[in-house]
Amino acid sequence: MIEAGVLLPTRESVMSGRPAVGPMLAMAERAEALGFTSVWVGDSLTARPRHEPLTLLAAVAARTRRVALGTAVLLPALRHPLVLAHAVATVDRVSEGRLILGVGIAGDTPATRKEFEAVGVPFRERVGRCIETLDICRALWQGQRVSRHGRYWTLDDISVGPTPHRPGGPPIWWGGGGPTALREAARAQGWFPIHPSPERFEEGGRRVQAAAREAGRAPEDITAALYTTIVLGEPARAQAELERFLSTYYDAPAAAMVARQACYAGPAEGCLEWMSRFATAGVRHILLRFAGAADQIAQLERAARELLPGLTRST
After folding, report:
1. How confident is the model at residue 293, as a pLDDT?
2. Residue 294 has pLDDT above 80, yes or no
3. CA nearest 75: which of 50, 53, 49?
4. For residues 65 and 63, what is the distance between their CA atoms, to the nearest angstrom?
5. pTM score, two decimals?
6. Scanning 34, 128, 131, 206, which has its CA 20 to 30 A from the CA of 174?
7. % pLDDT > 90, the chain
8. Are 138 and 76 in contact (CB under 8 A)?
9. With b meaning 16 or more CB within 10 Å and e meaning fewer, what string describes 83-115?
10. Cα(86)–Cα(160) distance, rounded to whole angstroms?
11. Is 163 in contact with 92 (CB distance < 8 Å)?
C-alpha cells in the first residue's frame, strides 16, 4: 500500500499570474475529501517565487481536519533557527500535530545562489547551516531552555513556546539523494528524494537503511517517500504538457529535468504500473505534482478516480 499526497501549485499560480490563495485552499479541501493522505507546498524566496510555505500551511490546517501537511521541501539554511522553530511549532499547533517538515539543502543553480546571497547566507555554508539549524530546532521543541555556541548560531538560555503539538516536534523528512541527505535521513523520520528510477531509489534506500542500522535505529522507522510530477491523459498530449511544464518551470531543457526527476505522462494504468515498481523498491508515500496550473482540480479528480484505488491496494 502506498499513501498518496498532492502538491499545491504555489509556484505555478505565481507563474501564471493567478496568485490567489482561495483556489489552493479549495484544492486542499478537495484533496482531503477525495481520500489523499497529505497536502504539500514548496519553498523559495526569490529563485522560484511562491507563497511562504509555513504561512500557507497554517491556512490549510484551518481548512482541513485529517490530511498531513508538509513542506516539499523547506530550506532551513535560509532562516534563523529560533524564528523557524517558533513558526514550525505554531503550525504544528494549528494543525494539531499534522505537520511534516520536509527539508533540503538546495540545489546549486545561479538563481539559488542569488537567493542565499539575498538573505546574507554564504551559499557554501548551506549544508552546515541546515544541519545546525535543525539541531537547534529539535532542542527548542523539547520545551527546555537552550544554550548553544555553534559554528553559525549562538543562543544563550533561550526557549520557544508554545512547543509543537507533537512531543519533540514534527517528523523531519530529508529531501535529496546526495551524501548529506542520505546521512541525515538516517537520523530523521523520512527520506524524500525525486529519483527518476526505481533502481536509483532502491540504491539510495539501502544506504539510508544501512546508516540507520549503524546509528542503532530500526530502518522501518524511516518513511521512504517519493516526489513525482505527472500528467494523466492521452500519451502524446500528456508528454507534450509535461515537457512544456518542466521547461517553463525550470527554464531548462525538459529532457534534462526528466533525467533527474520522477516524471510520468500517459494513461492511468501505465502510471500505476510505473508507481508499482517504485513500491517494490521501497516507496511508501508518494507525492503527486500535477504538471501545469490550468487544470489542477481536473487532474486531482482524475488521479483520485484512476490512481488512488490502485495505490491504496497492495501494489
Report:
1. 64
2. no
3. 53
4. 7
5. 0.97
6. 34
7. 97
8. no
9. ebbbbbbbbbbbbeebbbbbbbbbeeeeebbeb
10. 6
11. no
- Cβ–Cβ contacts within 10 Å for residue 273, how many? 13
89 bridge partner residues: none
Looking up cell 511544464 gives: 245
| 113, containing H or E segment | helix 110-118
C-alpha 107/C-alpha 105 separation (Å) is: 7
Q: Which amino acid is at 112?
A: T
| Dihedral sign from CA coordinates of 252, 255, 258, 259 | negative
The number of beta carbons lying within 10 Å of the beta carbon of residue 122 is 12
Per residue in 146-172, pLDDT (tens digit) is 999 999 999 999 999 999 999 999 999
- Give domain 3-230+269-312's CATH number out of 3.20.20.30, 3.40.50.720, 3.40.50.80, 3.30.2350.10: 3.20.20.30
The region of weakest confidence among 54-63, 91-100, 113-122, 289-298 is 289-298
